Amino acid sequence: MSGMGEAPNAGLLIVGADLVGAGQGDLLMRDGVFVDPSEAGADVERIDADGLVALPGLVDLHTHLREPGREDAETIATGTLAAARGGYTAVLAMANTDPVTDTAEAAEHIWALGRRDGAAEVVPVGAVSKGLQGSELAELGLMARSAATVRVFSDDGVCVTDARLMRRALEYVRAFDGVIAQHAQDPRLAGADACCHEGELSGRLGLPGWPPAAESTIVARDAELAALTGSRTHVCHVSTADTVDVLRWAHRRGIAITAEVTPHHLMLTTSELTGYDPIYKVNPPLRPDEHVAALREALADGTIAAVGTDHAPHARHDKQHAFIDAAPGMIGLETALAVLIETMVKPGRLDWAGVAERMSYEPARIARLPHQGRPLTIGEPANVVLVDPQARATVDAATSASLARNNPWHSRELPDPVAATIWRGRISYRRGGS
Ligand code: DOR
Ligand code: ZN
Q1: What are the residues whose beta carbons fall under 8 Å from the beta carbon of 49, sequence distance 6 or more?
Q2: Domains of the chain
Q3: Beta strands in 85-241 (DSSP E)
Q4: Pairwise CA distance, residues 187 & 126, whole Å
Q5: pLDDT tens digits, residue range 382-415?
Q6: Which one-letter DSSP state was computed for residue 287?
Q7: Which residues line ligand 1 (CB under 6 A)?
Q8: How far is the CA of 95 from the centre of ligand 2 (A)?
Q9: CA within 20 to 30 Å of 175's CA: 122, 270, 365, 397, which one?
Q10: pLDDT, tens only, 126-184
């Protein structure tokens, strides 16, 4: 693909994009940063962006890249290509790899692989506990001070259940302005086999139930611990109206707790489970309509500050099982913006500035990323996604950049918004591949 990864010295000029709040204008980038568009020479590479909206490159707080350990499901190269296709210029790579990212060496390894293979910035998330075992703190300080400069720590996949360990982790990361991102799931209320929202349907389907209280009680506890320690906590993949209520209560008290919602929890509901298709098995589970409505409202009013995909690629042989035995998770990087447009922009719940906040500025702030989630102004890093607000397409799992095929959007008609992604002034994805 010409243009891919090659920034001509003359730079790249985006012509006539909607600059969201600043009218229609041009963006010139050279050596990875925005420069004055009036300096564009005749030999500059041009992208005609008439009718396209320019947003800052998206930042995903919650990506599972599977490398090292499960390169049959996803690699850093394929996962970041999926990210670029979805409009992302940075992804936070979750720690539940093999080996677990619980040491400075492991974090630096992923960071270095990202620099070598990535089509987007790869920011390692450090584990909270050694081996995600929930008993001893991982090397939080060493990971923070490593070349990977880890700021987000999470045992995602499992909950930090022990309140004392959670308290210690929060106290520890305060020194370097880190944040503990919690997979909120009390295992005594929703055990490892829980795979369906607890209710009438879980009873009828005979699937082990996952009550909303298993999430909201952990979030309430973590809010109290954040207040106690004066530290920051973040809630991964909020799935219930009850958690939204807890977040509102915590915010009224001024507690530093942020939250993310996944695209799938904004659109899909428990009713998808009636056919026992394991594609819809995810943790936390899909919830009924009233929860989905509460999540949309919370994302609109900022109670939930960010979108996180929980892109969770799985090999076919881990996913194609009876529902109860299948691996939980679904891929989502390539379709996240499409789902946001469908659920939030089209119905008038968020405007483009709101999308930029929830999918770029705020995730970058939470993760303390200096070069991401920045305005499209002179001197800033040139990370951009060009959005076509009108295009639609039928999703085809077979054409995904991700290695995995556990795509819940397959065969659905959705917006097809990403015209091009530019990371550090270079085209990392362009529709049509030109
Ligand atoms: O569905 C999920 N899959 N939820 C998680 O928390 C972890 C993820 C995974 O790693 O597959
Ligand atoms: Zn999780």
Answers
A1: 14, 15, 16, 17, 386, 419
A2: 56-374 (3.20.20.140)
A3: 88-93, 121-124, 152-153, 179-182, 196-197, 209-210, 232-235
A4: 22
A5: 999 999 999 999 999 999 999 999 999 999 999 9
A6: B
A7: 64, 96, 156-157, 183, 282-283, 310, 312, 328-329
A8: 11
A9: 122
A10: 999 999 999 999 999 999 999 999 999 999 999 999 999 999 999 999 999 999 999 99
